[in-house]
Design brief:
The complex is a heterodimer of chains A (56) and B (212). With 56 residues, chain A is α+β, with helices and mostly antiparallel strands. Chain A has helices at residues 24-38, 44-55; strands at 14-17, 20-23. In chain A, β1 and β2 form a beta hairpin. In chain A, α1 runs antiparallel to α2. Chain B is built from 8 helices and 5 strands. A 3-stranded mixed sheet of chain B has the order 2-3-5, with no helix packed on it. In chain B, 24% of the residues are buried. The chains are: A alpha+beta (56), B mainly alpha (212).
Chain lengths: 56, 212
Amino acid sequence: MNFLNFLPIDQEGKINLFGFSFYTDDLLILAILFFLYSQKINDQFLYIALILLLIK
Amino acid sequence: MNDNDFNEMIKKAQSMIQNNQIPDDIKALVNNLQNSNSNTSNVSYNSSNNVTPNCSSNVSNNAYNTYRNNNYKNGTYTSNSYNYSSNYNPSSNHTGSSNSNYNSRDFNKTNINSNIQDKNNSSNNTYSSTSNEQNNSNNNLNSLNIDMETLMKIQNIMSKMKNSSDDDMSKLLLSLKPYLRNGKKEKIDEYIQLIKMGKMTQLFDLFGGEKK
């Protein structure tokens, strides 16, 4: 059984959540950002790089 | 010319000194050469007509520097008993890196004898020595004016630049790379380089400078 069948991911790799479509890599980057912020990581350049990747 | 030839020259000069055939200035020069003969000399002679105030040790280097500073301003040298009309050529005829380089063609026994006999005549001198080269290299090092603290900081920065590829940020971004789209995969390396440059600017702030 494929785990991805439980997630609403289309062929392009987008996820529809609450009416919004997100790319899976964007969600991954957001999750990493949240994890780093919750762990109080003070690496400004890492945050900048992840945000740049997110808005690309 | 090897050391034996030079020793012969010194012996002849000593005999002339004992016979009082040469004035005090030349005696002093020969004594300097004799004292420095035991040490490894770094001089290459290239004198055509006259005994030149060459130097082969620290003592004779000082004598040479004094001679150069005091007497080459006008291009002529005048002592109590001698008249030197000298042409100094600082960049000519270095005979290599070997020590005790004396050019037998230019500085031989005949020249010594004839020069001492013709001690009241003025003649052209052209000499070069490896001591000149050493002085020039020392002056170049001093002119660089490199501070050891600056060198240590540069070394620290270089070591951090080498180790920057192994830091946690680069590892995280590179581990994230396979899960990104193709457009973002291409940007990962660029952002890593950009962030490394940003961290380098933080290191350069350690140098100080004027802060506005």
